[in-house]
Amino acid sequence: MDYPMTLAALNAELHQVLSDAQLVTTRLPGLPELQLWLLDPANLNRAFSSEETRQLLDQPPYWSFCWGSGLALARWILDNPQQVRGMRVLDFGSGSGIVAIACAMAGARQSIACDLDPQAQSACALNAQLNGVPLTLAADYFAVTGVIDLIIAADVLYDSDNRMFLEHFRQRAPRAILADSRVRDLQHPGYTRLDTLHGQTWPDLGEPEAFRQVALYGTVA
């Protein structure tokens, strides 16, 4: 696996948004098996300048957070390794890579972390290295070739433009599993609700309790 950016380079990218921000190794609530390079919570305990606010809105470093749905789905995978063991799995919109890493830890034959953002790819690579597991990086979902046994995605449905992928996932792989804290009543004939999980974004953004309830969906056979 190639590592597109060193930790120092990724921190430098983060400094373009928040000048004093740093990534630190972080243990996650309810997920002691896994750690990630995430934004130091101390960087959130101050007022942001107008320029920093603009940068955060224009270039949010989403890969420096572990979002609640990703944490919940990673926990579910580690608790249910038979769901991914021996499979070629693609994690769509991988972000920090937490779900792809959980799949690798649970015995996936190949775990593909797919994200368009080169900084997210770097975060995935560094986080995989931190946890001692192999990941395959992919920037373009449509360029991934070969058989995919399972497509997984966390917190991608909030963007209505991503709804087009729901049907494509069903055509591309025998199974797809989605976790989402914002969409709790997905209306799509190809998907059914499997469970409700608990997740928390980290560093803690003080999200309402409702956003810590994560809906888990799976494709209908």
UniProtKB/TrEMBL annotation:
<protein>
    <submittedName>
        <fullName>Methyltransferase</fullName>
    </submittedName>
</protein>
<keyword id="KW-0489">Methyltransferase</keyword>
<dbReference type="InterPro" id="IPR050078">
    <property type="entry name" value="Ribosomal_L11_MeTrfase_PrmA"/>
</dbReference>
<dbReference type="InterPro" id="IPR029063">
    <property type="entry name" value="SAM-dependent_MTases_sf"/>
</dbReference>
<dbReference type="GO" id="GO:0032259">
    <property type="term" value="P:methylation"/>
</dbReference>
<dbReference type="GO" id="GO:0016279">
    <property type="term" value="F:protein-lysine N-methyltransferase activity"/>
</dbReference>
<dbReference type="Pfam" id="PF06325">
    <property type="entry name" value="PrmA"/>
</dbReference>
<keyword id="KW-0808">Transferase</keyword>
